[in-house]
Amino acid sequence: MRKRSIRVGVRFNQSEHERFQKLVEDSGLSQEEYLRQLVRGVVPRDAPPPDYYKMMRQLYHIGNLLNQIAKKAHVLNVMDVKRYDEAVAEFEQAVKIITEAVILPKEK
Questions:
Q1: Can you tell me the distance from the alpha carbon of 91 to that of 97, in angstroms, rounded to the nearest whole number?
Q2: Could you list the mean pLDDT of each consecutive 10-residue stretch along the chain, which spans 108 residues?
Q3: Measuring CA to CA, how many Å separate 13 from each of 38, 57, 73, 79, 89?
Q4: Which of 43, 62, 80 delimits the end of a domain?
Q5: Does the residue 9 lie in any domain?
Q6: Helix %, strand %, coil % for the chain, to 5?
Q7: pTM of the model
Q8: I want to staple 79 with a disulfide (CB 3.0 to 4.6 A). Which of 3, 56, 73, 97 is the partner?
């Protein structure tokens, strides 16, 4: 059985429909998901540029390398743990801020 059993029909005039279609297309969401987000009180963002995902993969790769370096340095006991932890926290915060600014929908 479907989770969503209630169907809602909406009628637009030509300009409203064109505007709605553009907003949906820009967001990269389906029409249904776009409307669901609006109902939940969030404004869907435009889909991120294609380079965004490439850049995020690079950032996660850097984070992974930092983690590997930390493990090796910890084994060799040649690491300033406090400075490393602060740098990693700053890195993770930067990734979070970028994600919130580009991907996550805004609350109304």
A1: 10
A2: 83 95 92 92 85 84 82 77 80 84 71
A3: 20, 42, 64, 65, 50
A4: 43
A5: no
A6: 65, 5, 30
A7: 0.57
A8: 73
